[in-house]
Amino acid sequence: MKINEVIIVEGKTDTQVLKSFLDVDTIETGGSGLNQKTLEYIKTTSLTRDIIVMTDPDFPGKQIRDQISKVIPHCKHAFVNKKDAIKHHKVGIAEATQDAILEALENVVTFSPDSESITWAEFIQLNIIGDKKRREEIYEHFHLGYGNVKTLFKRLNLVGITAQQIQDFIAQGGKDA
């Protein structure tokens, strides 16, 4: 399967895993030590090719994703569920199953920082704040990775998901069919 975008990963092992079943170009950040030179290389690459950020589903991965998003706000994001990326007590893309990686690539999202699709008042009315299980279901259903309440609110807005879409999901029982 050919991927036209350049996928940003954290390390060489991630690249090896992706290349084992995909025809893909990658850029490695060197883990959480993402330096200015690599960031500039990613930015230059984004002028001619679309970028997909696929970092590990952990805190350092989120930090790298946030750094890249600041420099390239129009980049795409692929989120592998943490539960699908754990092997031998390690968490990462290299530990993820092929199916989990393909699902993440099929459900790529692009953030739009200039819109507000859901207000904080609407968000509060959905009773997400005190319900971690519901929050995790929403993250998973809309393919937004994982984070805390504020991150979920921000990502819902960045992707353009409305309160109505969330209400519809909750009304269906809150689980993916």
Q: Which key features would you list for this structure?
A:
single chain, 177 residues, alpha/beta, 8 helices, globular
User: How many strands?
Assistant: 7
Class by alpha and beta content: alpha/beta
Number of helices: 8
Strand order of the largest sheet: 2-1-3-4-7
The quaternary state of the protein chains shown equals single chain
Rounded to an integer in angstroms, the radius of gyration calculated over CA atoms is 16 Å
Give the CA-based shape. Answer: globular
Question: TL;DR of this structure?
Answer:
This protein is of the alpha/beta class and 177 residues long. The chain contains 8 helices and 7 strands, in the order βαβαβαβββαβαααα. It has helices at residues 12-19, 36-45, 59-71, 98-106, 120-125, 132-141, 149-159, 163-171, and strands at residues 2-9, 23-28, 51-53, 76-77, 86-87, 90-91, 109-110.
What does this structure look like?
With 177 residues, this protein is α/β, with parallel strands linked by helices. Helix content is 43%, strand content 14%. It has helices spanning 12-19, 36-45, 59-71, 98-106, 120-125, 132-141, 149-159, 163-171; strands spanning 2-9, 23-28, 51-53, 76-77, 86-87, 90-91, 109-110. The strands form 2 sheets. Strands 2-1-3-4-7 form a 5-stranded mixed sheet, with helices on both faces. The protein has a two-stranded antiparallel ribbon with strand order 5-6. It is globular, with a radius of gyration of 16 Å.
